[in-house]
Design a protein that fits this description.
This protein is an alpha/beta fold. The protein has eleven helices and nine strands. The chain folds into two domains: 193 residues, no CATH class; 108 residues, no CATH class. The protein has a five-stranded mixed sheet. Strands 1-2 form a two-stranded antiparallel sheet. Helix 1 packs across helix 4 and helix 5 crosses helix 8.
Length: 341
């Protein structure tokens, strides 16, 4: 996830790529580790016309269709025959915009289920609904997704954007690609973790490894096993990152180190959660960011500093079993996210 500040007024949180483990071709590997500063910030590229179905004169074969919800940031290009099938549905915490006649309500239910699961795990004392709804936009193809999140993130499967002012959440938004495999199970839980944890990260910047580590534990078991395998290969040839280096990194590593970063971050996060709880780890990450690791480790885990943490982690990392520590229940049944009519 990338944190970008615009004019010191608000922060945009962008979830990194979901690495596609099912790709057999290296050319299909998603562009991980890319940061991007969008010239069009969240909620700033709505159509000038109030007509949601304004015709794009430059292309008579398509329409520039805005999501039916007026606050949606996307200006979507979809075939004219499909425009009637765009739907929105709202609940206490979400508004879903979906390019299908039958997907908005099931997606909405899935969002509420995943949110509730993650809040119970990470923020058990939070009982109230969000003050403003999170917009969830399902993109039928890459073109509309790129238009919403920026070309530099065009190879990602999902993106979470949070707008905040002085530590207060103003808006949340999740963009998902429907042309990627099973986004409601493979991508949504990861992105929703970022949206849920924004309650904390808006006020206190979390360490990069912890921020991603928590979201990675919401990935499917298949993806977690892939990251675990990356880490095991690094451990076997002793090319893993030093823990002190990982802890103080403020930026994502180079692209060729990104999968190791994912594997090591999720492994260290898992180890500490298993010694306490999700909420305890989150408080540790906050304290480490504000007061330093040595003090936070002693307070929360009775570990006497970063070097002792590294020794303990190396003892267990090779035998660590991957379990979906914070995996949300999978969506049952198939949901058609793109209209075929």
């Amino acid at each position: 996830m990338v944190r970008l500040t615009y004019g010191c007024l608000f922060t945009v949180l962008l979830a990194l790529v979901q690495f596609d483990r099912q790709s057999d071709s290296p050319s299909k590997t998603q562009a991980v580790g890319q940061t991007h500063s969008r010239t069009n910030a969240a909620f700033s590229i709505a159509p000038k016309s109030s007509n949601a179905d304004q015709v794009d004169r430059s292309d008579k074969q398509s329409l520039a269709v805005a999501c039916r919800c007026t606050k949606c940031a996307s200006l979507l290009k979809v075939p004219s025959q499909q425009r009637a099938y765009w739907q929105t549905a709202s609940s206490a915490n979400f508004t879903v915009c979906c390019p299908s006649t039958n997907c908005a309500t099931p997606v909405l239910q899935r969002c509420e289920t995943v949110r509730a699961t993650l809040i119970r795990q990470w923020l058990p004392d939070q009982k109230q609904d969000w003050g403003s709804k999170c917009y969830v936009v399902i993109h039928p193809q890459a073109a509309s997704y790129i238009q919403a999140v920026g070309r530099a993130a065009g190879e990602t499967s999902g993106c979470t954007t949070v707008k905040e002012l002085n530590g207060k959440i103003l808006s949340r938004r999740i963009d998902l690609r429907a042309d990627r495999p099973n986004p409601l199970n493979r991508t949504l839980p990861h992105e929703m973790t970022h949206a849920v944890l924004a309650e904390v990260t808006a006020a206190h910047k979390l360490p990069r490894w912890a921020d991603e580590g928590m979201a990675l534990l919401a990935d499917t078991q298949e993806k977690q096993l892939g990251h675990h395998a990356d880490l095991q290969r690094a451990l076997a040839n002793r090319s893993q990152m030093r823990v002190p280096t990982l802890l103080v990194s403020q930026e994502y590593p180079a692209v060729d180190q990104m999968q190791l970063f994912y594997g090591q971050s999720s492994s260290l996060t898992r180890m500490l959660i298993e010694q306490g709880s999700h909420a305890q780890f989150l408080q540790f990450a906050q304290d480490a960011s504000q007061h330093g690791y040595d003090q936070a480790l002693r307070k929360h885990y009775q570990i006497q500093g970063v070097l002792e943490l590294e020794r303990r982690w190396l003892k267990v990392a090779g035998q660590q079993q991957v379990a979906t520590v914070s995996q949300s229940p999978p969506s049952s049944g198939a949901i058609s996210l793109v209209s075929t009519e």
